[in-house]
Structure formats: structure tokens, C-alpha cells
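Practice problem 4.
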């Protein structure tokens, strides 16, 4: 789990003006609410007076109010009022971390980190989102699995044949499966996009509705540690484009915000059927992912045997290593060990502008202590073959 990326917080309609919403993410508590202008705010949930949970309080005049002694915090995280000190300006230290927020695709995202705006890895841009020829459905679900395992599953074209037998398999021909999945780097990630194996076109559950020239290609890519894209392009005008924004609740639970876009079967009467087919595939993945052992990807590659079909997964791990090297990886073991004694916050951009913060910043893993995650020999050999 990393700081300095955008994370989905909630569906836009879950965040309202009169009631704060508690959200757990990266093992820490946050509070989300709207001010009088309807703008969403995400703050650290821990009141800096004596540790009250702001999300148990209420919202008034655009401020989040602590339920314990009524301290009022604005969307910028500053304490605007201390009721017991009437007429006295709250001290400069009376502030909680406030995170940059963006509302997009019916989701409220927060940037959980302290990078200045120009250095932030972006929220994935869904180009066809506002295009009238496309339709979007948003599903939100949880799985008892580690989010990196879930992203890796998306970067793994071989599992489809076994986990999703109804969806048409195999996705890749036997010759292709023996070669490393060809990946290309993109900003903050990597992608593969390949023609299907022979069968998929005929086995697709929604096959009879297809029109237009055959494209017959599909692929997946990740951008950052927690955003995954899958495109299934049956023909030029019959596509499913799927976007997963994953929120690691903690080291064993993940909340996924899944946007399924399509440019065919546009009428509303198809919504329920497409939802059913899509969620069936999701359940098939979830069942496997919840059974993985260990829950988190092992730190050393000698505890797995990777084959060429895992090459895109390996590329994902390469990128994780880059973010490890930046020192952005949360030291979750330390966080857990000390959680009862120390209240932590993800450092917000405000910490770069001013000092004097009450809560400790979440413990991070120094680059030198990050897991090795080297590219396994088998893959390295096959890459050069
Ligand atoms: S703990 Fe929040 S006001 Fe006292
Ligand atoms: Fe899958």
C-alpha cells in the first residue's frame, strides 16, 4: 500500500451535506462530507483535541464537528472554532490533514499523500466517459483479498480459461501462452493488448448482438498501484471497456469501484443482463482471489514459480519496486503493531507548507528496506530468448 496516489473514497451520492461519512482506507480512518456549496472534503478522521472521531459527529455550516467537545473543522482541515474558548482564535496547531479531492465518474476520489499538484500521478482518464455513444454502469463491491493480488489478476490473461470458462477461452493461443505476455510501458504503468485466441468470438455470451467489423482483441493495463483497465473489443462497434479503481481498506480487504462501459446494447432493457454477466465474472475472480495464500504477494520470488504468462504481472511488480524506491510504501506491520498507542495520518500536501502537526505521519518503508521483488530467472531467460 502506497501514499501519493488517488484513491476512490465513495460514490458521489454517499457523501452528503448533513452527515459525515466514515471511510477506512490504507488502514486509517477518514471522514468525508460536503460543505454548503456542495464541494466534497476528505479529512483525517482523528480530532487533534483528544482523539474524537469526526465521522461520529455532524456537519454544520460546512464544518465537520467533533462529537466529543464540539471543535469545528473546515474543509481545509483548520479548526475554525473551539466552543469552550469562546472569542479566542484556535491555535495554529489545531488542524487535521485535509486531502485534495476530485469528483469524477460518479465517484469522489482523494489524493492520499503530500505531493504538490503538478507531481501527482493522475486519476485514470476514461476518454469515452462523456461520449453519448457509450454507456457507463458503476458497481461497488468488497473482497477479502489484498488489492495488489486483484490488480495482478487483471494483468493475467491466462486465468480466463480456468476462472471464466463461460466467457470464451482461451484468450491467447497456445503458442502465445508460451511467450512472455508482450507489455508496453505507459505513464505510471504498463499494458498489453492482443488479438483473441480462436474461440472467444463464438463463445461470448452476448455474441448474437454483434455487428460491425471484427476487431477481436483485448488487453489490460494498470496505471499506478490501484487502477486497472480492461478493454474487450469484439468489433469496432461492440466493446466493453472496464475500469477498476481499487481502494485498499487494509492489508486484507479491498473495495473496488468498477465502471463498465459499453458502446452496444445501449437500451436500458439490457442493463440488468449486462450487470448479471459482468458480476458473474467478478464473483468468479473474487472466489479465487479470496482463497490465495499468502493473502499478500510474497516478498521473495522464490516462493512462487512464474511462467511467461505472468510477464505482465512481473511488470506490475517492477513498477511497485519503483514506488518502493521513492519511499511511498506504507510500513503496515509497524502501523498495526503501534496502532493502539499512536494515531497516525497520511501526510497531506499541507504538511509541506507548514509544520506543527499533532498526528504522526503514517510509518513508511525506507527504500533500502523495501522487498526485493526481483524479476524471476525463468522470466528473465524467456525474455531474452
Ligand atoms: S476530542 Fe474532538 S473536540 Fe475534544
Ligand atoms: Fe478474471
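Answer key:
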Amino acid at each position: 500500500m502506497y501514499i501519493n496516489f488517488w484513491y476512490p473514497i465513495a460514490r458521489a451520492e454517499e457523501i452528503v451535506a448533513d452527515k459525515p461519512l466514515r471511510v477506512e482506507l490504507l488502514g486509517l480512518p477518514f471522514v468525508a462530507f460536503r460543505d454548503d456549496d456542495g464541494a466534497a472534503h476528505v479529512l483525517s478522521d482523528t480530532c487533534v483535541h483528544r482523539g474524537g472521531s469526526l465521522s461520529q459527529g455532524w456537519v454544520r455550516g460546512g464544518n465537520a464537528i467533533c462529537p466529543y467537545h464540539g471543535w469545528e473543522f473546515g474543509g481545509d482541515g483548520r479548526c475554525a472554532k473551539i466552543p469552550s474558548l469562546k472569542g479566542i482564535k484556535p491555535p495554529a496547531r489545531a488542524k487535521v490533514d485535509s486531502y485534495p479531492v476530485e469528483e469524477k465518474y460518479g465517484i469522489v476520489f482523494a489524493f492520499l499523500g503530500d505531493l504538490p499538484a503538478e507531481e501527482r500521478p493522475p486519476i485514470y482518464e476514461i476518454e469515452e466517459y462523456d461520449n453519448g455513444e457509450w454507456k457507463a454502469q458503476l458497481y461497488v463491491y468488497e473482497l477479502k483479498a489484498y488489492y495488489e493480488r486483484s490488480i495482478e489478476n487483471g494483468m493475467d490473461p491466462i486465468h480466463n480459461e480456468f476462472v471464466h470458462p463461460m466467457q470464451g477461452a482461451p484468450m491467447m493461443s497456445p503458442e502465445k501462452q508460451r511467450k512472455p505476455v508482450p507489455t508496453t510501458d505507459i505513464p505510471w504503468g504498463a499494458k498489453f493488448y492482443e488479438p483473441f485466441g480462436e474461440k472467444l468470438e463464438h463463445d461470448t455470451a452476448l455474441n448474437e448482438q454483434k455487428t460491425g467489423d471484427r476487431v477481436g482483441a483485448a488487453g489490460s493495463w494498470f496505471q499506478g498501484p490501484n487502477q486497472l483497465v480492461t478493454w474487450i473489443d469484439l468489433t469496432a462497434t461492440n466493446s466493453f471497456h472496464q475500469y477498476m479503481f481499487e481502494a485498499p481498506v487494509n492489508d486484507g480487504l479491498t473495495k473496488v469501484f468498477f465502471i463498465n462501459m459499453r458502446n452496444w446494447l445501449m437500451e436500458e432493457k439490457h442493463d440488468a443482463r449486462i450487470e448479471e454477466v459482468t458480476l458473474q465474472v467478478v464473483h468468479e475472480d473474487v472466489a479465487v482471489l479470496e482463497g490465495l495464500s499468502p493473502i499478500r504477494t510474497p516478498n521473495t520470488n522464490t516462493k512462487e514459480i512464474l511462467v511467461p504468462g505472468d510477464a505482465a504481472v512481473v511488470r506490475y511488480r517492477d513498477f511497485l519496486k519503483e514506488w518502493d524506491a521513492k519511499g511511498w510504501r506504507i510500513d503496515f506491520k509497524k502501523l498495526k503493531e503501534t496502532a493502539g498507542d499512536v494515531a497516525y495520518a497520511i501526510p497531506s500536501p499541507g504538511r509541506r507548507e507548514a509544520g506543527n502537526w499533532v498526528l504522526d505521519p503514517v510509518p513508511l518503508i525506507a527504500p533500502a528496506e523495501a522487498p526485493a521483488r526481483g524479476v524471476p530467472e525463468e522470466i528473465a531467460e524467456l525474455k531474452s530468448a
